[in-house]
Amino acid sequence: MYFKKIVGQKCYLSPINEEDYEKYTEWVNDMEVAAGLIFASKLIGPEAEKLTLERLSIDGYNFAIINIKKDELIGNCGFPKLDQLNKAGEVGIFIGNKDYWGKGYGQEVLKLLLDFGFNILNLHNISLKVYSFNQQAIKCYKKVGFKEAGRIRESKFIAGKAYDEIFMDILDKEYESVYINDIVGKKLQK
Questions:
Q1: Which of 4, 96, 111, 148 is the 20 to 30 A CA-CA neighbour of 10?
Q2: Which residues form the signal peptide (predicted)?
């Protein structure tokens, strides 16, 4: 069961349902999906994934990404690291269902997360990390407004090749709210 916490045009963000552990286990063990993520080298079985989802559903601000038309799970996203004192957060996004790759879902999910992070969590800086081989993700992040803030050179080795770890960020003043300001504006007009 999913709940429409933050709603976009193509998808919505819902609290994570730990009963989706079998679907996630399939995705995290698909090397094409996992290659750019921290768990690519890990062997993850159903029980371990269920425990991970239980933790994610309780700790912090983590969401399932749901296709709005089909009510279909396509991945998850959230804020794995928050520093409320300094108004900073790190965002992560994972689209496991490859049928949704390259169709604008990542951009919409990031905009939903940025709206939530800047307008609800009152963050000032939101950052992310990406490996240099993941050009599709880098292009997506730039379209949303993220800028490169730095990199660790040749820190990721895959198949004998070295890749940079790129740090990107966006400030609240660089982002124009798309979703949450509309909701608040409608409430104020009544």
A1: 148
A2: none
Rounded Cα–Cα distance for residues 75 and 12 (Å): 11
- pLDDT tens digits, residue range 50-75? 988 888 888 889 999 999 999 999 99
Class of residue 127 by CB neighbours under 10 A (exposed 0-12, middle 13-18, buried 19+):
middle
Cα torsion 150, 160, 46, 1: sign: positive
Query: In terms of DSSP H, where are the helices of the chain?
Result: 21-28, 31-34, 46-58, 105-119, 135-144, 180-189
Domains of the chain listed by start with CATH number: 6-189 (3.40.630.30)
Q: Distance between the two ends of the chain, CA-based, in angstroms?
A: 31
| pTM of structure | 0.89
Rg of the chain over Cα atoms, rounded to whole angstroms, equals: 17
Three-state secondary structure call for residue 114: helix
Chain centroid to Cα 104, Å, comes to 13
